[in-house]
TrEMBL record, chain A:
<keyword id="KW-0813">Transport</keyword>
<keyword id="KW-0472">Membrane</keyword>
<feature type="transmembrane region" description="Helical">
    <location>
        <begin position="121"/>
        <end position="142"/>
    </location>
</feature>
<dbReference type="InterPro" id="IPR035906">
    <property type="entry name" value="MetI-like_sf"/>
</dbReference>
<feature type="transmembrane region" description="Helical">
    <location>
        <begin position="254"/>
        <end position="274"/>
    </location>
</feature>
<feature type="transmembrane region" description="Helical">
    <location>
        <begin position="85"/>
        <end position="109"/>
    </location>
</feature>
<keyword id="KW-1133">Transmembrane helix</keyword>
<keyword id="KW-0997">Cell inner membrane</keyword>
<dbReference type="Pfam" id="PF00528">
    <property type="entry name" value="BPD_transp_1"/>
</dbReference>
From TrEMBL, chain B:
<dbReference type="Pfam" id="PF00528">
    <property type="entry name" value="BPD_transp_1"/>
</dbReference>
<feature type="transmembrane region" description="Helical">
    <location>
        <begin position="254"/>
        <end position="277"/>
    </location>
</feature>
<keyword id="KW-0472">Membrane</keyword>
<feature type="transmembrane region" description="Helical">
    <location>
        <begin position="12"/>
        <end position="40"/>
    </location>
</feature>
<keyword id="KW-0812">Transmembrane</keyword>
<feature type="transmembrane region" description="Helical">
    <location>
        <begin position="69"/>
        <end position="92"/>
    </location>
</feature>
<feature type="transmembrane region" description="Helical">
    <location>
        <begin position="228"/>
        <end position="247"/>
    </location>
</feature>
<feature type="transmembrane region" description="Helical">
    <location>
        <begin position="200"/>
        <end position="222"/>
    </location>
</feature>
<keyword id="KW-0813">Transport</keyword>
Length: 286, 291
């Protein structure tokens, strides 16, 4: 995503400097904007609604809201089930992010620089968990764990999550690797750097933004992951989305809203936090 | 690209091994086992005598109920894809063509914000909007437009609305990339030659973005037919789709063999879609090379 934004920048500047034909039909332009704004409302309104219900004090859906209260947040943070699920989700997401980032980034490096035969097929295979139904990944892993009689361990869940998050890391890292000038590496080697030193001082800093973007995706996808977890969690040790789902089947009060707001805020904090701390520093270095 | 590049794998190629191991143990092996389970009479670990059978597949083909479930899944997928395309295209076009950097960043955030919100949370949002006492019905009643609440939830329409909301960002992001690569001067040339903006769009931009339309549609369709949370919650356990049926076979009936057979059917449909999707993306990159 970052690469698309940055690579489209010169084109945008170029376009901005070109003479722009004035809108010959302003009504068409207004219609275009109106349609797009309606679509944006459709995209964003449900998220706003969640926040409204998290703050609305009535124990059932009521619209328009009657007031503002934090009782659902209190209930959420006081609930042992929800708190346990929240921490378990964070634990799984962190473990998944670490393993998916390490495996995905090294796989991307091998694919871009290793002269492997059949690279296209390998890339397609590694990206396939994105499009193959995640519920099947869950089902297949569940059956395997049952057949091998290993129960439903946390590592089994992390392995499932790693499988569905790895493609993001591979894709973002490959994008950066394909975009960067290999002459930089050649220059470093010509100047006498060993391949290892070239890797750590040239390649690694350059691919860092791509790896980081992949890691952010991996964290969020794992934290929100549902279909794989559905089969692989054990009762009493459930991730937050599964706990929310089970709660939603019977109850529709504001606790879900509060839990939703907490998970949305967490996702944003991770994105912004990672970008600010690691992201900015890597740009400063560049 | 560079002539010095050898065709033999070098040391860096070894970095593929950890991922290869992960995929072998946790992807190919489990899917292979699932395929195996779908043709066995029982669990070979606990049952001493298992035999090969086609009864799980025969059950699916022989019972109109299961064919109906498969058709419902595909129908919901098709409608979702179509609506996501109609809604996603204008937004993608705006994102690809907007000149202000801030505008582009804001649009990107608006598209990504729903993606950062989990599927369960977004489905909850639609339950609060679409239920009998939900936001939509209460607003319409208080405005005096309707006297009885509209039945929006527990219908296929409700499921489609929820699925479109969840998967339209994927459509937008795929289309934005493709539309962004179409040279804007082509449209301007058409307009300079006297075509209306609409005609320039229909005759220039739209045909050039066809590979993106194809890729985005295949992606959304593949995601929509494998959705579980949204159909089950917005369908209120009344509308049966393939993923719901699969989970039910495991959780309620513990019929692992039949669940595996259903899974293989879903897998086959998805594999065909993945192959078609890669072809469509190949078209996109082919087009890029031509430019």
């Amino acid at each position: 995503m970052q690469t698309t934004a940055s690579s489209s920048l010169p084109v945008a500047q170029q376009a901005a400097s070109m003479p722009v034909p004035g809108p010959t039909r302003p009504y068409g332009r207004y219609l275009y904007l109106a349609v797009n704004i309606a679509i944006l409302i459709f995209l964003l309104a449900p998220i706003a609604i969640v926040v409204v219900f998290a703050l609305n004090p009535t124990p059932f859906i009521q619209f328009p809201p009657v007031g503002v209260s934090l009782r659902w947040f209190e209930k959420f943070f006081a609930s042992r089930d929800f708190m346990h699920a929240l921490w378990f989700s964070l634990e799984v997401a962190v473990l998944t992010t670490v393993s998916a980032t390490m495996l995905g980034a090294s796989a991307a490096l091998a694919l871009a620089r290793g002269n492997l035969p059949g690279t296209r097929l390998i890339v397609a295979t590694m990206l396939s968990p994105l499009m193959l139904p995640a519920i099947l990944t869950g089902l297949a892993l569940f059956q395997t764990y049952v057949l091998l009689d290993v129960g439903r361990p946390t590592w089994g869940l992390v392995a499932g999550h790693t499988l569905v998050t790895l493609p993001y890391v591979v894709r973002t890292t490959l994008a950066v690797l394909h975009n960067f000038d290999t002459r930089l590496e050649e220059a470093a080697q010509n100047l006498g750097a060993s391949p290892l030193r070239t890797f750590f001082e040239v390649t690694l800093p350059l691919i860092k933004p791509g790896v980081l973007a992949g890691a952010i995706f991996a964290f969020i996808v794992s934290f929100d992951q549902f279909p794989v977890s559905l089969f692989l969690v054990s009762p009493g040790n459930e991730t937050l989305p599964v706990t929310l789902f089970n709660y939603l089947k019977f109850d529709l009060d504001g606790t879900i809203g509060a839990a939703s707001v907490v998970s949305i805020v967490l996702a944003f904090v991770v994105v912004i936090g990672l970008d600010r701390t690691v992201g900015l520093r890597s740009y400063v270095k560049l | 690209m560079s002539s010095t590049a050898t065709t033999r794998p070098n040391g860096l190629a070894l970095f593929i091994l950890p991922s290869a191991l992960l995929f072998t143990l946790f992807f190919f092996l489990p899917i292979g086992l699932m395929a195996l389970m779908s043709v066995l009479t029982g669990n070979p670990v606990v049952m001493p005598k298992v035999a090969f059978t086609t009864r799980h597949y025969a059950r699916m083909i022989g019972d109109p109920f299961y064919l109906e479930v498969i058709w419902t899944t595909i129908r919901i997928g098709l409608v979702t894809t179509l609506v996501a395309l109609v809604i996603g295209y204008p937004l993608a076009h705006w994102m690809a063509r907007i000149r202000s950097r801030t505008g582009h960043a804001l649009l990107l955030m608006a598209v990504l914000a729903p993606m950062l919100t989990g599927i369960v949370v977004r489905t909850f949002a639609w339950m609060t909007l679409l239920s009998d006492k939900g936001v939509v019905n209460q607003t319409l009643i208080s405005l005096g437009l309707i006297s009885q609440p509209l039945k929006l939830m527990y219908t296929e329409t409700g499921i489609v609305v929820g699925l479109v909301h969840i998967y339209v960002p994927f459509m937008v992001l795929t289309l934005t990339g493709v539309i962004g690569r179409i040279d804007e001067r082509l449209e301007q040339a058409a307009e300079n030659l006297g075509a209306s903006p609409l005609r320039a769009f229909i005759e220039v931009t739209l045909p050039l973005s066809l590979p993106g339309i194809l890729a985005g549609s295949l992606l959304v369709f593949a995601l929509a037919i494998s959705a579980y949370v949204t159909p089950i919650l917005l369908g209120g356990f009344q509308i049966m789709t393939l993923p719901i049926l699969i989970y039910q076979q495991i959780s309620a009936n513990f019929n692992v063999g039949f669940a595996a057979a259903l899974g293989i059917v879903l897998l086959m449909i998805s594999l065909l879609l993945v192959i078609a999707y890669n072809r469509a993306l190949g078209l996109v990159s082919g087009q890029r090379e031509l430019q």
